# Entry
Amino acid sequence: ERLLKNNKISQTKRETISRHENMNCHTYTFKIQENSLNNQQKEFLKMIFIEQKWLKNYILNWCEQDKENKLTKFDTKITKITHKDKDMNDIEVELKYLSAQSKQCLVSRMYSNIKTLHVLKSKGLQKCGKLKYSKEEKVIDLKQYGTSHKIISKNRFKISGCKKPFKVNGMNQFINIPNIEYANARLLNRADGYYVQLVCYIPKENKIKNEKINKVIGIDFGCSTSFTTSEGEKINVSIQESERLKCLQKKFARQVKGSKNWYKTLELIKKEYQKQTNRKDDISNKIVHKFSQYKTVVIQDEQLKNWSKNHHGKAIQHSVLGRVKSKLKTKENVVILSKTVPTTKLCTNCGVYHDELKVWDRTFKCECGVEMDRDIHASKNMVWFYENNVGVERINIKRVEMEALVLGVIRNSKNQLVSMKHETYSL
# Structure
């Protein structure tokens, strides 16, 4: 009976995977209404994250006590553990709110983190490290839809372990999609409240296909002007810290570390930073949606980390360059040029490099007669490199090779113009 049950589970899993391969995967986030929670729900949301912190620290301590204790041998059915109080005394507690599936997900996540550390160390990308004890947990994995979590109605969401379903906001963005399938979810504890991230699979025929603008557009990233397009449009985004955040930081610096008021101010600061993050996400999504309407978008693989080192840290911090770049990389109609492609200092009209061009020079001038804004010239060069297939596929190109490729394209284009003139004269 056990083997038959396992075979049935594996067969159902294979069918689900094959069905999901022909569907689009989306992740939707919606918020739990805190003003509609009763005392039992508040206690559940508070204690489930605390119990996961206790369990994670208990597992790390259990592995350190004996070398034979391996993470894969840990019994996830355990219900009683010990943890340290503020006086560093061992206290035995019972796990009442954390489900067995959430325990399994925690162990598998810890195991995955250890494997990642091992791979990074073996490749020389990181020094030897280990998992550390947690002060707080922010994510609870809900593995199986229908068991660990379930949608009750258009604004009710059920989590196993809590009798009453939670009232939520934001499910209207996907609840009316036909033939949608729900998968795993995550319960998030953010500074401004509790959220749920739900993975959904939507049939491809339900996807709305928007008509693209039949143009190739180049986008230049910068510090003085955040985004400059090849059509001459400039978009500048700078989200500074609010005055309330500055006042809270001054107040936080004067308070005694570890006091109750110190922790209260710390929570208020986290909320302000979360608001700032939400504003950045909203603006970056709107910018990415605007650029994605074009048939082809050409960007360069800018090294933003190096920009922050070269006295541009504040400009990078207050901008949304990294968010927009990471989101554009996931789009199918985006072409990424290598960082070695000379989009700024090269004149594509005559093929001359202008190494004398400095960062503070905002106008590009060439002896052949080309004179325009520096950022617009760079974005137009991106389109030129894409249309002439120069440096698009290769990652590292030496300067000698690039000069030969550019001069060859310019020479061919001039020969084509001459031949077209002779044809018109003959006619």
Observations:
- The chain has nine helices and 16 strands.
- The chain has a mean pLDDT of 86.
